[in-house]
Design a protein that fits this description.
Blueprint lengths: L6 H10 L4 E5 L7 H5 L8 E2 L1 H5 L5 H11 L4 E7 H6 L2 H9 L2 E8 L4 H6 L17 H7 L3 E5 L6 H9 L3 E8 L7 H15 L1
Parallel strand pairs: 1-2, 1-3, 3-4, 4-6, 5-6
Helix pairs in contact: 4-6
């Protein structure tokens, strides 16, 4: 993992993305990054399906629904590599359905929430690891534009695509470090550790 993707790059994306946006949030370690750092223009423009169902893998199909419900808005889907793999068939549906969408895949080659909640407590992390997937290549093969984001400067690809006013889907395969632990995840582990020690 070469990159660390956390608040600075998500804040940078916030400045780049169109104001007329609909954010769809899958579940995972990153679950607070979009609501915390991306501007939400209206109450119906943040669909937190990962929180609502306490699961992962519903991002792609939910993005299809958002694209149909608000066709003039740019759909911004935030998902993880684990959730994206669970719903991979629906990536093709997003590409065929959305007028304009940006898919952000937070790719840490792991089920990050599990790593940060359970592996730190001594549970074998082996089943929590995923072979690194090249989501940019998968998306390109299905007809989307794509870019691998391994450093802050790589986000220039987003600016170029947005400036073109092209419709379609842009997938950002954001390589993130497992060393980055969201503050809310640290709080969950701290509380669980205290309760478990009683």
């Amino acid at each position: 993992m070469a990159a660390v993707l956390h608040d600075r790059p998500v804040r940078a994306l916030d400045r780049m993305l169109p104001a007329d946006r609909t954010i769809v949030q899958d579940g995972g370690h990153f679950i607070g990054w979009a609501p915390g750092y991306l501007h939400v223009p209206a109450p119906n423009r943040l669909i937190m399906v990962g929180t609502a169902y306490q699961t992962i893998g519903l991002g792609f199909p939910s993005a299809v629904g958002a694209a149909r419900a608000l066709p003039d808005s740019t759909v911004v889907l935030c998902t993880g590599d684990g959730g994206a793999l669970m719903a991979l068939a629906d990536l093709d549906t997003v590409i065929r359905t959305a007028r304009r969408a940006v898919i952000v895949v937070f790719n840490d080659a792991a089920y990050g929430a599990e790593i940060h909640q359970y592996a730190v407590r001594g549970i074998d992390p082996g089943p929590m690891l995923i072979d690194e997937v090249d989501f940019a290549a998968v998306a390109a093969a299905l007809g989307a534009r794509s870019a691998t984001i391994a450093a802050l400067g790589d986000l220039a690809a987003v600016e170029g695509w947005l400036a073109s006013d092209d419709d379609g889907v842009l997938l950002l395969d954001c390589r993130i470090s497992r060393q980055v632990v969201a503050p809310y995840m640290q709080e969950i582990v701290a509380v669980a550790t205290r309760v478990g020690a009683r």
